[in-house]
Design a protein that fits this description.
Rieske Iron-sulfur Protein; alpha+beta; 22% helix; 158 residues; single chain
């Protein structure tokens, strides 16, 4: 009897250890997650600061670009590097000067902290929450979304 009692706790301990080690892997495999191939652009959050990082993308031989920048509140803001008004000119893209983005077509100046906050008018086309996915340490922008915004870059001459 004494042997049986000492054997049972060991078995239980081994079973709990096995569950603790194997369960997270089993659950993570069943969780639906987008495939790497779904992303046109992946932005590493640790690489984003107050100076914009530009991410090129090519679709059917046509160049496109998205930028990401960290606003003064610490959030990461993303936008197409093209203007909502001037994109048709081909020169409606932005260059950063300190905390301001300047449209290279009309000269409009747009504050870094306004990116994703203001839509319409002469400012960068925002890539909003529903158009990007938080992947933990990174942000994914899907190929499908990039395809949908390709007309903004039809005449782009960056």
């Amino acid at each position: 009897m004494l042997r049986l009692r000492s054997f049972l706790p060991r078995r239980l301990i081994l079973a709990f250890v096995a569950i603790a080690v194997l369960a997270p892997a089993a659950f993570s495999q069943t969780k639906a997650s987008p495939k790497t191939a779904d992303w046109g652009i992946v932005i590493q959050k640790k690489d984003i600061g107050t100076t914009a990082t530009f991410y090129p993308y090519t679709l059917n031989g046509k160049p496109m670009e998205i930028f990401a920048v960290r606003a003064s509140d610490g959030t990461i803001r993303t936008a197409l590097n093209t203007c909502q008004v001037c994109y048709g000119s081909g020169r409606g893209y932005y260059k950063q000067e300190a905390n301001v983005f300047v449209c290279q077509n009309c000269g409009n100046r747009f504050s870094l902290d306004q990116i994703e906050k203001i839509k319409g008018g002469c400012n960068p086309v925002p890539v909003l929450g529903e158009d990007k996915t938080n992947l933990g340490d990174s942000i994914g922008i899907s190929k499908a979304y990039l395809t949908s915004v390709a007309p903004y870059f039809a005449r782009w001459k960056r």
